[in-house]
């Protein structure tokens, strides 16, 4: 009996270690995703300043998909963290890292840090970049209709060019608004939602249900 218990404990430790390592890998992938997003955005923005504001619109091709992928990473991290907490840490007294993340004092400190300038910039980085691209696009688009001559501002534009510019400006505003929406959706990490699902799954298993019952056909 002791040998069987020792094997079970060893297997659980292996599963725990595997999950922790996978969690670290996903966090690293998420950090790399941020780096790629910032780098590509900076290149497109610099090109837009030099060669034409249409490149500001192209930044959304980077911001939106990358932020969606980052959101998926957040959800994966949340699920794995809570799974570790529910199936491993709540049963033991020697591992507490994931449980620490919901400790009231730590959560209060995290809430304070998120309210600082650095915290706001960190949380809304994609949305802020989207707003920067939108403002830059609008300013450079409007500049095309203004010229200066002998301290006089001259406004010149055709009906067609005005319609095109208005359409492009509306597109930039919509894209910037969408980046704000998807950025807000990426936090908080939906801890309660994931916890309820995993806790329900644990209760179903303890009541006699088998994992094979939930297999996707």
Give an overview in words.
The chain is mainly α and 217 residues long. The chain has one domain (2-199). It is built from eight helices and two strands, in the order ααααααββαα. The chain has a two-stranded antiparallel sheet with strand order 1-2. The chain is elongated.
Helix and strand arrangement:
Layout: H1 2-51, H2 54-87, H3 97-100, H4 104-114, H5 117-123, H6 125-143, E1 146-149, E2 152-155, H7 159-185, H8 191-206
Antiparallel strand pairs: 1-2
Tally of alpha and pi helices? 8
Which spans have pLDDT < 50 for at least 5 consecutive residues?
Answer: none
Instruction: Give the averaged pLDDT, no decimals.
Output: 83
Cross-sheet strand order for the largest sheet: 1-2
How much helix, percentage-wise, in residues? over 70%
Largest sheet: 2 strands, antiparallel
Number of domains: 1
Class per helix and strand makeup = mainly alpha
* SSE succession: HHHHHHEEHH
Terminal CA distance = 37 Å
Number of strands: 2
Instruction: Based on Cα principal axes, name the global outline.
Output: elongated
What proportion of the residues form beta strands (DSSP E)? Answer: under 5%
The radius of gyration is 25 Å
